[in-house]
Design goal:
Number of helices: 2
Oligomer: single chain
Shape: globular
Structural class: alpha+beta
Order of helices and strands: HEEEEHE
Strand order of the largest sheet: 1-5-2-3-4
Largest sheet: 5 strands, mixed
């Protein structure tokens, strides 16, 4: 199975968010081909959650898991730490009071 490049996945994800009227922004542009992606969900109440894609070695399944959740400053510090040792990292920020991120929809794993 052919995998999408990070840049194409991010563009498709941003389009899906736009179509669902969910504001989404690229905060950090990573490697176009194989950069990892972190999605930060800002619920605009001082809290946030960041998600990263995880690979299950037993099943071969890819899924989005919570990296950290809590106060926005704490989540931002965690993402900054990740960026410190992974310069190829993409960071996408979603702003949605209802907590929608679309990562649980088919095709986004």
């Amino acid at each position: 199975m052919t995998r999408l490049t990070s840049e194409i996945w991010v563009a498709a994800y941003l389009t899906r968010c736009r179509l669902a009227t969910i504001p989404a922004f690229i905060v950090q542009k990573g490697d176009a081909t194989a950069g990892a992606v972190i999605v930060k969900l800002n619920t605009l109440d001082g809290n946030a959650v960041s998600y990263q894609r995880s690979f299950d070695l037993m099943t071969g399944e890819r899924k989005w898991v919570v990296l950290i959740e809590g106060g926005e400053a704490e989540v931002d510090a965690s993402i900054a730490s990740q960026r410190g040792f992974d310069p190829d990292l993409w960071v996408i920020e979603i702003e949605d009071r209802a907590g929608r991120h679309l990562l649980d929809e088919p095709g986004l794993d």
